[in-house]
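just leaving the lab so this will be short. below you get a single protein, a line of residues and a line of whole numbers that encode the local backbone shape. id like you to explain what the token line says about the fold, in plain words if possible. thanks a lot i owe you, the record is right below:

…
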Amino acid sequence: MSLFRRRDNAGATADQLIPPRPSSGSGAAVVTQETALRHSAVWACLRLRANLISTMPIDVYRKVQGIQVEVPKPAVLITPGGDEVEMPEWMYSSQFDLDRSGNSVGLITAVDGLGLPARIELVPSSDVTVRMRKGKKTYRIGGTIYEPNEVWHEKQYTVPGLPVGLSPVAYAAWSISEYLSIQQFALDWFSGGAIPSAHLKNTAKTLSPDQADGAKQRFKAAVANRDLFVTGNDWDYEMIQAEQAGADWIQAKQFGIGDVARFFDCPSDLIDAAVSSSSVTYANMTQRNLQFLVMSLGPAVSRREQALSRLTSRPRFVKLNRNALLAMDPQAQASVIKTRIDSRTLTPSEARALYDQAPLTDDQMAEFDRLFGKGTQPAPTTATPQAGGASS
């Protein structure tokens, strides 16, 4: 995001409040919001978080006598960007910007009868500048000045005194730049642009520059034409090896992946990065997903719920269905459903609805009575989950 300027009575600027991005040294790769995406770990972390949060079902509720009751969603929570931009795409784009720049900004292009936003067109965060002067905030987007009531602004990673969120990409610039620089140097190395690919040495005498050029041209001509190159016993040819250097680059790049993953609050193993001294197996995968949801995504989801609740009239509020991410294997899911039915927190009809099945009919109940005895209500935990069925 562009430089955010803030001026107060003391004359402090955002430059003094936000630690400056480290300057690039000689030969270091320049890190921006766009070039950072060339780092596979940056792309993977942003993609994973945006994928998961954007696919959480969005529901609107209100409290009635202390009970949470679902109510219809306003149009802005169905197609926030108009007919061509539905909620999953809008959520993905805004979450992607939140996680890389700390801010997501959009123009409010329509309002409903209550004066609430009815359409929000997201804009690239790199096109936005936020200014605070004498306690008044304004937005500059694409060369045009907008008032706060014309702009939708979500932020995360905030600190006191700043009207914007901090950018993980800016703070991870050193780690990202190191990775990109290693990547570029490796490309130059193996393409032969960084060092000579071989060493042709005369062991009998010292060659003048003209003699050395002549020998090089003869050798290159022979190699290019796949011809024979004939020498006496006064020439040595040595390939310059890069195995050890390549191993060092790989090690440095692997360290850079874990370092970047920490900046973006995404465990390395979830982006297919090599992780030492840990083991994630199918047996503990459900607990791993739960840990990621609670420790990493949970705060971000809560912030988004509060922000999206501003699009509804009070006392309505928005909830993202976190349970949709906790997909369990059929055996674990059946065990949970049986426990809930036995504890009277879930009815058999509600359990069948989780598998997109209608409540039991009288004929089905009679058949169960014939098979298991009259009055016996079997728990539908042996049913095989169907495609598209939700999980509890």
Notes: Residues 3-26, 242-247, 386-392 have pLDDT under 50 and may be disordered. DSSP finds eleven helices and twelve strands in the chain. The chain has three domains: 1-187+242-327, 198-239, 328-372. The CA atoms of residues 114 and 381 lie 46 Å apart.
